[in-house]
Design goal:
Length: 332
């Protein structure tokens, strides 16, 4: 087999594995969230269908596939139909440049668990994951529903505003490492726990986590959905598989965000003492992913004005201040 044919086959297999694994994990995440929230709120959660309620996933999948797909009569039908696809596609495309595990040898060949190892991977991931915003915005506007339009408008102001916070936080990381490559950022933290960037950039870590909650539409910072105010926001008119595509994209983005935080701030997939790197990246990502559920169960929903005031009056000034301090330390 020629080198090109091997490369093409390897890339195809990686794409299939990423789609299959992360689509499955996105489905399982819905079960995990329901169980975790139940424990926090002293409820039982899914427990009737299968052992520990695990088969509830299958029941939900059957419901999504068989539920009637309704398109509102006065909606922009083409855009209404495309918006859920944008949500899922952009989430999975962003995963293509994220190194999920350390490289390993299989059948005498070195395999890198990353679909596209590009030297500007950080920019690529930020750009492609940000496209999820268009799914929310277009889906809300195309629905011809006032609650959906309000959810889309909230998404417009919140996601664009908090992207500035996340970008400014990541510029500090790039200044320290001197590279946009996620592999280089991971390798920079390979000298033990004290080389982890969370200890050099604790403020950037906090700012990026807050921005990540906005990007992934998670409570308590989510403005696009709120049952008490705007029903289901941008997704009010969606049903069946189209509704499911939005949430597959949302949970895939959450998983990608958890892996990205682990790579950027928590040492990535470097070995830790006697624990192999592939186990470490899984443990770190699961821990960060758990934060989504923890925050939803522990904190009340913030008002839109509170979220935006926090962005412009607190977080952006802090991000700029952190950037200036980082530049000063590097130069002097």
């Amino acid at each position: 087999m020629s080198e090109f044919a091997y490369f093409a086959l390897e890339t195809l297999i990686k794409c299939i594995v990423v789609l299959a694994v992360f689509a499955t994990l996105a489905g399982f995440a819905t079960y995990a969230e329901r169980k975790v929230l139940a424990y926090f709120q002293r409820r039982i959660g899914p427990d009737m269908v299968g052992p520990f309620g695990l088969i509830q996933l299958v029941a939900d999948m059957i419901k999504l596939f068989t539920k009637e797909d309704i398109i509102p009569s006065n909606s922009q039908k083409v855009i209404f139909a495309i918006a859920p696809l944008i949500a899922a596609i952009s989430a999975f495309v962003s995963l293509s440049a994220i190194p999920i595990l350390p490289e390993f040898v299989l059948f005498g060949k070195v395999v890198q668990p990353i679909i596209a190892d590009i030297n500007v991977a950080l920019l690529f991931v930020i750009g492609t994951s940000g496209l999820c915003f268009y799914a929310v915005f277009l889906g809300g506007l195309a629905s011809n529903n006032k609650w959906s339009i309000l959810g889309a408008a909230r998404a417009l102001v919140a996601i664009i505003s908090y992207e500035s916070v996340g970008a400014l936080a990541l510029i500090a990381i790039v200044m320290i490492v001197g590279s946009f490559s996620l592999i280089d950022i991971n390798n920079y933290q390979g000298d033990g726990i004290l080389s982890w960037l969370i200890f050099k950039q604790p403020l950037a870590f906090i700012l990026f986590i807050i921005a990540l909650f906005i990007e992934t539409n998670r409570t308590p910072l989510c403005l696009t959905e709120n049952d008490a105010e705007i029903v289901a926001g941008y997704g009010t008119e969606y049903s069946g598989l189209r509704w499911g595509m939005f949430f597959i994209g949302e949970y895939a983005s959450m998983i990608a965000g958890a892996i990205l935080v682990s790579l950027l701030f928590l040492g990535g997939f470097n070995d830790f003492w006697i624990i192999p790197g592939w186990i470490m990246i899984i443990l770190k990502s699961v821990f960060i992913f758990f934060w989504y559920f923890w925050a939803r169960a522990a904190f009340p929903q913030l008002r839109p004005d509170q979220v935006m005031r926090m962005c412009y009056l607190i977080l952006i000034p802090l991000a700029v201040f952190n950037l200036l301090i980082t530049a000063f330390v590097i130069v002097f």
